[in-house]
Amino acid sequence: MIVPAPSSPPEPLPFFVYGTLRPGERNHDVLLRGRTRTEEPARLTGAVLYEGPGFPYAVEEPGGVVRGELVTARPETYEELLSVLDRLEGYVAGDPRSLYERVAREVVREADETAVRAWVYVAGTAVTARLRDGGRIIESGAWSSRR
């Protein structure tokens, strides 16, 4: 009998957030307060932002830009925050029904144009297909501009 090797924990990358986790949005204080070391404006290139019911979806697409924040967790809260965000985003590794997929991508800090590798929750496969078929793109790439 072959026993699969235990999966290693994901690399402790910062998170790129672009919707309800941004400062001033409903999930920021509830989920991030006290768990982050830094939060700074950043952008993700190669993706567009779609308006979903109640929250946004980033969909990878050449030429697009999504605006958000690069959030670095405090080391002692990293694993807890990763678990909390996976739950919030409906992400289960390897599950094709996941609303979002957690992927490592380069994002750019607005302050100094430095590229940083970060976790980004992008729309899952089925959600991406529905959005491309009839979703509404947020042209500015900023969730706050939808109002």
Automatic annotation (TrEMBL):
Domain of life: Bacteria
Stored InterPro entries: AIG2-like_dom, GGCT-like, GGCT-like_sf
Xref: Pfam families: GGACT
Domain Gamma-glutamylcyclotransferase AIG2-like stretches: 15-144
Descriptive protein name: Gamma-glutamylcyclotransferase
